[in-house]
# Entry
Amino acid sequence: MDEKDIDIMQTIMKKGPIRTVIIIAAILIFFLIMKPWVQVGAGERGVVLNFGAVQKTVLQEGLHLRIPLMQEIVRVDVKVQKATTDAAAASSDLQDVSSTVAINYHIAPDKANIVYQTIGIHFKERIIDPAVQEVVKAVTAKYTAEQLITKRPAVSDAMKLTLTDRLKEHNISVDAFSIVGFSFSKIFMEAIESKQTADQLAQKARRDLERIKIEAEQKVTAARAEAESLRLQRANISRDLIELRKVEANLKAIDKWNGILPQVTGSGAVPFIGVGDLNNK
# Structure
């Protein structure tokens, strides 16, 4: 082997590592650009699209490989979410009712591909809000405006049951349902306030009447007791007792006398307290 061949071999050996590095770098760049993997986060599901066509496979949480250029993975949130919807309706007595409803819902995880295929990712605006408004109108029409207030738990349960059946058809589950508030017309609210005031006054009048009755009964009972006491006292009084009381009264009068006879003008006997009564005895 001459010197020329040795130089060629040395040149090839020098260029070999550089080519290897270039090839490895090209492969890494290709992977970074094409990204043949996908990560599905917690509370998500991956919908597989082959050239835009939804596949039956639903990817669970974690890291998954995909075929670049051919496959696309769409992440769908299956966690519990909250939606608040306003709805206008009319009660059975034709009162205008404005309702605010809040629900907690989630997408059926194993049906994420069907939900994406039939509804897309904007399912709240397309499905949930219209369903809530329709359910509120249907259930509200079965109750009077007053019953919507007094039977609010029953109204809420009826709305939740109807909405659950309605959204189940779209693979959406209702976890919780609550009526945030009802609002009525100003005239109806004034009528409710007037009725409440009248009820409170009626209750107060009934309480006062009961109190008067009790007080009257107490007075009658006291009068009867006093009358009975007087009757018993009269039954126990005798002539001897009366005379004894007179003597006791005269003795008290004598004890109080200061020994000075009263000054009188004209003729007549000198009065002496109690003497006549004592001589009669």
User: Anything to note?
Assistant: DSSP finds eight helices and eight strands in the chain. Residues 272-281 have pLDDT under 50 and may be disordered. Residues 157 and 177 are 8 Å apart (CA to CA).
